[in-house]
Design the sequence.
């Protein structure tokens, strides 16, 4: 699994934004793990709140964005809330742009 | 369940609720009901039920159809009931209002419409309560407990209302007549304090934490307000019915319930302050700022209630007290949250299916906060002016203030329609390939 492939997957997922925060799922720290083997991509991700109606759309959006990459034959996205997401996972620059503070 | 689906009929409930609000405001501006008529007069009951059932209850029911599955991460067992329940509630409410107009002598005598309407209305609300209640009891904790208590209060409110309707039609027997003579305060407390306020409290705990990215309160802290609230309600309803059965006065029972209720609301205020203080988002969106105004109105309502009880002027000012509770606190919070919920659901419905395939706007891009804010300010100024005019006994000036409220309400409704029509989303992001514009009145899911 090359670094380049993972970077391309990561870039592709940036088109998927969280509707409430208005930032992409990568910079928000929603993506827990990415693996790619022989054209099959596995992503483990989270969302801000379990049960939120956006959750299913985020999962499908991530799968759709990765499926567009040349060479990808199958995508499997797993949604988990363990560990739960916290604002501390947001990229520091994005966190500042969102006006968040006091985040440990 | 990783994510709730979009509730198909939530927008329909909101649309019907806003329609009833406009009807009620038109009646207030036109001088129907209190203060032109007595508090208990049939004309006043027309306005009260249009507001409390048509506007407030339909809004809360619509929001709960979407929110309850989010709360307990479990789908509703009977989500196909939402549309027939909406139909029954509206038909029942129309019958009830026609029955009151008949009592007032404004239309031909037809008091049978009161029991008939109350049964149809009760059936619709029972369907809602059963669908939501069965879902909530699967995970009875936190906010879900508030809504369960609220639904219990709804059942008590409806049961008393049906008894009153049969008594007004002369077919409820001696105990029914005794209830009608004495239990109206219990009906009002169960409806406004139990069903609407406890439910709004529970939902706001969760929504505020979600939208401001605050840490959820500990289970123990968030349920202390509920314990006192539920106790207040139990004392008012159970104690009140006992007192009526024993032919004793309600005074002492209602005082105890009021003290417990004030403790509950004080604890709620403490919790809300904690959520605001611990938020990660420092910039508050319009919906949160306007929710803050509604919380201030709740504090003002509690203060006003305490003052009129201590000064012995409940009989004179109870109308102003109820008005501030209904339009300052409950309606203010509902308007603020509708502004957010309509935009959020519209975004999901339109852009959720194309996520990952095309660039999409943010939820915030569906609304223009600066333009909308003035309508909220006009609405709240109207509410405060109307409350003061009621306290001063200025009936004509009250109608003017109600007209200001109507202007603010129509402005907010216009903004909600613009959100639904994606009117403020600019350029190619408005409808990217594959996205379908939402219907105004229901979700296409």
Sequence:
């Amino acid at each position: 699994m090359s670094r380049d492939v993972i970077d391309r997957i990561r870039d592709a997922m940036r088109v998927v934004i969280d509707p409430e925060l208005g930032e992409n799922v990568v910079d928000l720290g929603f993506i827990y793990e990415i693996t790619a083997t022989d054209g099959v991509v596995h992503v483990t991700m989270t969302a801000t709140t379990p049960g939120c109606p956006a959750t299913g759309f985020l999962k499908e959006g991530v799968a759709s964005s990765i499926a567009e990459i040349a060479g990808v034959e199958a995508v499997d996205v797993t949604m988990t809330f363990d560990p739960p997401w916290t604002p501390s996972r947001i990229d520091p620059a994005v966190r500042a742009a969102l006006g968040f503070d006091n985040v440990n | 369940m990783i994510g709730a689906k979009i509730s198909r009929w939530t927008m329909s409930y909101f649309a019907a609720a806003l329609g009833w609000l406009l009807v009620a405001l038109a009646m207030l501006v036109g001088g129907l009901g209190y203060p032109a008529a007595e508090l208990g007069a049939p004309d006043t009951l027309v306005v009260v039920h249009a507001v409390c059932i048509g506007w407030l209850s339909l809004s809360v029911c619509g929001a709960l159809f979407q929110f309850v599955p989010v709360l307990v991460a479990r789908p509703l067992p009977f989500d196909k009931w939402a549309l027939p329940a909406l139909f029954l509630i509206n038909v029942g409410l129309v019958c009830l209002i026609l029955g009151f107009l008949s009592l007032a002598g404004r239309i031909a005598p037809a008091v049978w419409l009161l029991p008939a309407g109350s049964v149809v209305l009760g059936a619709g609300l029972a369907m809602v309560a059963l669908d939501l209640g069965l879902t909530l009891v699967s995970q009875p904790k936190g906010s879900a407990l508030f809504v369960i208590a609220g639904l219990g209060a709804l059942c008590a409110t409806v049961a008393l209302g049906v008894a009153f309707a049969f008594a007004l039609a002369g077919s409820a027997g001696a105990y029914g007549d005794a209830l009608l003579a004495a239990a109206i305060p219990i009906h009002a407390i169960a409806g406004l304090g139990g069903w609407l306020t406890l439910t709004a409290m529970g939902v706001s705990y969760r929504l505020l934490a979600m939208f401001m990215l605050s840490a959820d309160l500990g289970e123990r802290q968030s349920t202390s307000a509920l314990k006192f609230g539920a106790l207040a309600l139990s004392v008012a309803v159970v104690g009140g019915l006992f007192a009526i059965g024993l032919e004793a006065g309600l005074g002492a029972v209602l005082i105890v319930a009021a003290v417990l209720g004030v403790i509950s609301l004080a604890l709620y205020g403490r919790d809300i302050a904690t959520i605001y203080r611990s938020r990660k988002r420092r910039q508050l969106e319009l919906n949160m700022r306007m929710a803050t105004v509604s919380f201030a109105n709740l504090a003002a309502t509690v203060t006003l209630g305490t003052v009129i009880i201590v000064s012995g002027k409940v009989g004179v000012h109870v109308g102003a007290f109820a008005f501030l509770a209904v339009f300052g606190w409950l309606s203010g919070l509902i308007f603020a949250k509708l502004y957010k919920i309509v935009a959020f659901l519209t975004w999901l419905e339109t852009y959720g299916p194309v996520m990952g395939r095309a660039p999409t706007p943010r939820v915030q891009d569906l609304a223009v906060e600066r333009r909308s804010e003035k309508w909220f300010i006009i609405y709240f100024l109207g509410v405060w002016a109307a409350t003061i005019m009621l306290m001063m006994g200025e009936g004509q000036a009250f109608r003017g203030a109600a007209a200001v409220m109507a202007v603010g309400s129509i402005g907010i409704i216009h903004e909600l329609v613009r959100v639904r029509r994606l009117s403020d989303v600019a350029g190619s992001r408005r409808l990217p390939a594959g996205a379908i514009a939402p219907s105004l009145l229901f979700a296409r899911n």
